[in-house]
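> example.struct
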């Protein structure tokens, strides 16, 4: 007999040991902020996702804000829809201030008020569905690289710490107990202080990668983020490939066949293994967003991608957020973005990504541990001295069992470089800047996916 055991060793198994959730990103309004999403809109999306013909349980949703679009601090009706449909939620606080250099405090105050109202209405029923809370979405990318209104890494880290304290002292503290609180940003800026999980957005399409290289590019970015995340789990907050686009992006070509290939190769490689939110189910991006990333055709109400299955038994993990562990493993104009927007991918200008291997170095490698236990059973005839006198039919055996445990460990590092540049082990996360440099035009008051650009 042979038994196989997987031992849980800190970072190497943190993601596999935790519950895994899979779903889509949902904005707060349809294209324009005036078109506020109501309970029926969210419920329609949640049920569409749950009823897709696939072996992946798309029963989770990522929200960019806890507020209803166009309100100061009223709760999103996504809460009502989630409770009715039993849809798991990755909550979001929109923290980007209204002007450069501004503080996120006022936004956080209103997000907290909206969340408190949500819990006051739904209590434990809502709490059981919350898998975590993201403080901000791509704020660091906008502040550090895109020249837009955003929040620096230092401020994001401080805001996460403050939100944790505020929630602990709030009337709804019991409902958020043990819920991981983190941040979502592009691969280069995803790792921040005080985050319980690292939320990553990655779009090879915006990197102008061909669809043939897209999965390799995405996996390389994921591995880099994992290496710098330490023991913290990496969640894939946004990924996808558009089926149509009126603009050209070098080798990256939009199309149904390309979207299918990205889903089957890049998506199926992470569904059921990492908590993942695909972009997007139904098109709700702002008008300036020329690409259509939606899985469902709004006219036919049918999937654009014909094969949504992955044939991956790991995808059918048990869901339900009530017992989730913290170890469970995306050019704004002159008008300031006071709230999150409709998803709007961005236009990057970067050379193709090249994968190269590098010798492991202490402290930066990812350790994979496999433990195999082999039990050998050796039957032996019973000794004559132990046999009953005159009993010639005795067939009892003494069984000797020996156990051998073999542990093998392999460390590996994957490094990404751009163009012909040689990979440098000292570049760290900074090297990821070449993966998804992006520029985007996003309207103010972005209550949705303020960034579908990767």
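> example.seq
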């Amino acid at each position: 007999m042979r038994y196989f055991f997987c031992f849980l060793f800190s970072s190497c198994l943190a993601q596999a040991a935790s519950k895994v959730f899979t779903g889509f990103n949902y904005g707060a309004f349809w294209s324009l902020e005036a078109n506020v999403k109501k309970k029926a809109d969210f419920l329609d999306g949640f049920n569409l996702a749950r009823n897709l013909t696939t072996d992946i349980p798309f029963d989770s949703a990522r929200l960019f804000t806890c507020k209803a679009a166009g309100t100061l601090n009223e709760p999103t009706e996504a809460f009502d829809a989630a409770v009715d449909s039993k849809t798991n939620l990755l909550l979001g606080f929109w923290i980007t201030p209204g002007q450069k250099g501004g503080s996120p405090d006022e936004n956080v105050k209103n997000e907290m008020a909206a969340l408190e109202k949500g819990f006051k209405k739904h209590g434990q029923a809502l709490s059981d569905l919350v898998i975590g809370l993201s403080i901000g979405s791509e704020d660091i990318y906008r502040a550090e690289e895109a020249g837009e209104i955003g929040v620096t890494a230092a401020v994001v880290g401080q805001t996460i710490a403050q939100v944790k304290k505020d929630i602990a002292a709030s009337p709804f503290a019991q409902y958020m107990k043990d819920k991981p609180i983190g941040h979502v940003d592009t691969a280069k800026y995803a790792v921040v202080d005080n985050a319980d999980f690292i939320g990553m957005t990655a779009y090879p399409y915006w990197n102008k990668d061909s669809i043939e290289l897209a999965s390799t590019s995405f996996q390389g970015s994921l591995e880099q983020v994992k290496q710098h995340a330490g023991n913290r789990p990496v969640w894939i907050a946004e990924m996808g490939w558009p089926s149509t686009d009126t603009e050209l992006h070098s080798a990256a070509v939009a199309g149904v066949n390309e979207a299918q290939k990205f889903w089957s190769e890049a998506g199926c490689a992470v569904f059921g293994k990492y908590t993942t939110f695909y972009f997007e189910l139904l098109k709700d991006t702002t008008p300036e967003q020329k690409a259509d990333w939606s899985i469902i055709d709004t006219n036919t109400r049918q999937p654009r991608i014909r094969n949504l299955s992955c044939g991956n038994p790991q995808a059918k993990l048990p869901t339900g957020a009530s017992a989730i562990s913290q170890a469970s493993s995306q050019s704004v104009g002159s008008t300031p973005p006071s709230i999150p927007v409709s998803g709007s991918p961005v236009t990057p200008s970067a050379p193709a990504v090249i994968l190269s291997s590098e010798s492991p170095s202490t402290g930066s490698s990812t350790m994979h541990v496999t433990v195999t236990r082999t039990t050998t059973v050796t039957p032996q005839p019973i000794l004559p001295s132990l046999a009953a006198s005159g009993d010639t039919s005795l067939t009892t055996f003494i069984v000797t069992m020996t156990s051998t445990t073999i542990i093998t460990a392999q460390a590996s590092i994957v490094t990404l470089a751009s163009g012909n540049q040689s990979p440098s082990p000292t570049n760290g996360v900074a090297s990821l800047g070449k993966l998804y440099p992006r520029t985007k035009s996003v309207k103010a008051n972005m209550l949705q996916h303020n960034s579908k650009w990767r």
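> remarks
The chain is about 25% helix and 20% strand.
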